[in-house]
Specification:
Largest sheet: none
Order of helices and strands: HHH
Shape: rod-shaped
Radius of gyration: 32 Å
Structural class: mainly alpha
Strand content: under 5%
Number of helices: 3
Number of strands: 0
Helix content: over 70%
Length: 82
């Protein structure tokens, strides 16, 4: 007949043979967790920057700034005509 062995017994036997079922060291696990945390922060910062950019991009250009740009364009046209 079949010999039913539990998962824990198989894992223990595997580890005894030198084949660790979890080959990562604590340092590697910490590095992996740190990397995930860094990527999560970067994604959050990226989302917030995109949100702020979208808000600013939708704002109208101030009249003073448009007037300044118009004056710059006119002075460039005058110089080009000379």
């Amino acid at each position: 007949m079949f010999n039913i062995v539990g998962v824990a017994q198989v894992a223990t036997a595997t580890q005894r043979r030198g084949r660790d079922t979890n080959p990562l060291t604590k340092e590697q696990k910490t590095d992996r967790e740190d990397s995930r945390a860094i990527r999560a922060r970067q994604r959050a910062i990226g989302r917030e920057l995109r949100r702020l950019y979208d808000i600013v991009a939708k704002e109208p250009v101030p009249d003073d700034f448009l007037e300044l740009l118009r004056k710059i364009d006119e002075s460039g046209e005058v110089k080009a005509a000379k």
